[in-house]
Task: inverse folding
């Protein structure tokens, strides 16, 4: 039965509906904008940060948005983004904005998988 009152632990549930759409929008916008600025700023310039935002969003998809998942998601995303294991570095070889975005997309996917496993086994 629907209750107009949310439990304190359910504040994150509306994000489940809009976060995937926001992530797709940011990723598409990131590919386009990174392609546009590459001739001016060079390949994957540090001024382009939309790739980091999209990757972080991916790391949180379909998860409860709690302070713990946000912090662990950020740490895992940054680990995968900096260390670039498991084919992440190869994503940088794509041309234009795809190369800028895909390494962060894959880092976000890996972070999300680890978070899903941690939550499944009740480690978090």
Result:
């Amino acid at each position: 039965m629907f209750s107009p009152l949310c439990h304190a632990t359910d504040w994150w549930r509306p994000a489940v509906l809009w976060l995937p759409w926001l992530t797709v929008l940011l990723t598409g916008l990131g590919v386009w904008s990174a392609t546009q600025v590459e001739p001016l700023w060079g390949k994957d310039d540090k001024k382009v940060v939309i790739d980091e935002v999209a990757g972080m969003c991916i790391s949180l998809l379909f998860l409860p948005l709690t302070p713990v998942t946000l912090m662990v998601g950020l740490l895992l995303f940054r680990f995968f983004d900096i260390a670039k294991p498991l084919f992440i570095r190869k994503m940088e070889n794509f041309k234009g904005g795809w190369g800028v975005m895909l390494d962060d997309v894959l880092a976000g996917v890996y972070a999300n998988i680890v978070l899903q496993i941690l939550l499944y086994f009740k480690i978090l």
About this structure: The chain has a mean pLDDT of 89. The chain is about 70% helix and 0% strand. Residues 13-41 form the longest helix (29 residues).
